[in-house]
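so i finally got all the pieces together for this one. its two components total, 773 residues if u count the protein bits. some of the lines might not be protein, just check the labels. i wanna see the whole assembly predicted at once instead of chain by chain like last time, that was a mess tbh
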Amino acid sequence: MKRALLLLAFALPLHAQLLTPTVRGVVVAHEGRIRLGELNLDGVANATAVAASNDQVVVLDALHDEAVIADLATGRIARIETAETPIAAAFDGGELYILCRDARVLQHGNARIALSADPAFLKTANGKVYVYARAAGIVEEIENDRVTRRFSTAPFASDFEISGGTAYLAYPRDARIRTIDLQEMKTSGEIAVGAVPVDLAFAGGGTALTARILAVADPSAKRVWLTEGTQSTAKAVARGFLRGFLGLGLFGSRASQFPTGVDRVEVHGKQWLAYDSSSGTLYRFDRKTSSVIARNVAPGAFTLTRNGVAWWNGTSVAELTLE
Amino acid sequence: MKRALLLLLLALPALAQSRLASDFEIAQMEKQLAQSKDFESQLSGRLNLGDVRAARNEMTLARNEYRTALELAQRERLDARRDSSLSRYANATSYAALAQAKLGREAEAFALLEESARYSSDDAENWNLYASAMRTLRKPRKAVAAARNAVAIAKDPLDVAVYRHALATSLIEAGDTHEAEQLLVTVTTSLRSKDFERLQREAARTEAFEVYSSARGDVAAYVSLLNRAQLRLASLYEKRGDTANARVQYERVLEGRSDDVTALAALGRYDEAFAANPFSMALVRQYQRHLQTHPERGGAGVQLALQQLARGETRAARETLDALLAKHPDNETLRTLRREAEGATNVTLPSPTPAASELRALIGAFERLTSEQRTTLDRATYTSVVRFEGGVFEAGTIDGVPFRFGAPVQFHGTFDITAPLRLTYRILGVTRSGESDALLLEPVQLEAVR
């Protein structure tokens, strides 16, 4: 029997795959379906983002301005038309928020909350919703369906994350991470990190005695940098010292940590993942080594789970337990 | 902003405003392409040629150019990434997205555009490419949002004018003609003002008048932008019945380029318009409407054929068209008119999982597909159980109907080439396979038959 084991050069997948972990298992949005175990539900034509709560999952189609909300217990779905280009969703206390970038609104039920130019990132924290408007360089705090506070910062960040009372913004062009104290709505820190910091994740710390540790993906340096983030100034003073950031690569040598440039990083406990969007390579790594988990994985087609990592291997969900 | 690629973003819908695209111009472009080696020249050349082919309604040839552009951009992406040049990577990713959009692959285009925006949300050129891709995919509201970002970021006056023009174009497509008209007035006024005196002098000194989809240098960009902006503004004036202002704009266009086909046709100067570009479908359709109320005689070539068709002299029209087709056998405009002269019966496209009879019917009637059907076919995917012949994935049969790919293909996965396999594909055209006609396919996905 003749067999051909060859590399797919140009026949790209017709449908994207998105994975997200839930308490009931890994949900996959793929080929117009939403799958979780035995559940196989109608989804959207072109899944571009997914978010989950304990009970529900929402899959967005940014190209066709549509969202499908699935109840994980009953399998019931609700299909809704969104404003222009829904790019992100988040649940906060069971309430679903959908960020529609090109309409510049945050959708919450029937409410449409007007936002600044190019709202690109959506986070929830401390019972509030935060949006970073990328072109405007504005962080907006939303409560009770209205923007309660706005803070002007540098535009064009590539990532926006929140931990505790601090927001972290990654700036690839400036090679900087900037932090905002959300309670005071003011800049609380800024540090040079690597060459092109694109994505960040929280890698520990953040206790009364230690500052937040950030893992920062830098595709130009082919590294994930480990940096120590500030706590609030008040906390730091209370601890008796002020700590800034220390731009430290995970490895001390000049050798690249990864064979290709990684631009996404995910951390859950001691499970650390890095991903190279250009080649679709998924890595696991720790402070000493990195190794390939899978290749030809689409962006969004992998996720950390409670015990390890899950990814779409082309036909089904593959899982690997990480120590 | 890189002027080498500036006016890719000025490319207009073929039916709205066609431009000069003679065989001579295509030959010149191909010659330039053969001489250029760098990524941007190659890419702009391919996309430009694709647009010209599309404007001439030569969709198969256009897709070939877009595919080549995509391959170039993908290669550049990987090279840039390997060299840790993230700006280059973002730019190449945006161009890969635009090529995917021109090939009708919306999901792939969107994913690439978002990837580029992660790295370069401060880059006006990439936002303009985003807008251009969204326009290509007929998502004008998304294009408007991206174009607004480009306008807000740009600093250089010529860049600002280019991006305002692109924003106006997207607004027109989104139905907001009021803001579009205001923007175009701003653009044309500024381009004709003293702010651009240096470029105006240079254009006059070098007798620059060519209008490009992708122009090299500020002068070529300036000339092309002014031409396009004035045409768009004239068209808007016409649509709201302001013929006096429209006429002013068309006359200004002819001041810059006396053989502009759109302006000539709009001013009723059809002889000159056909001399400039006889194969413009926009011109053909406009002239056909004109002939319904103003019968004419005395043309030559395509113009003569249209006059003959309007008079019901279909046999004479066929003879005229056959003579033209002998000189330009690949020209879709001529083929379309020839079919119309023949009174072609309707042809139906195959179903998504076509039977052999549907595929055989398509092979027989391929040349009689309308341009709309050709567009639909270009975007459609089909799935069939196939049998490959030989030891490589290149040719085979679908239920006895021969097919082949443009070249041997490598698929990801392990497949028994001797067994029936499920192939998802696009139909590109009809070719020869041995002694018989065969479908020319583009593979999308190969799976084992369960």
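Chain B touches chain A through 54 residues (CB under 8 Å).
The CA atoms of residues 98 and 133 of chain B lie 5 Å apart.
anyway lmk what u think
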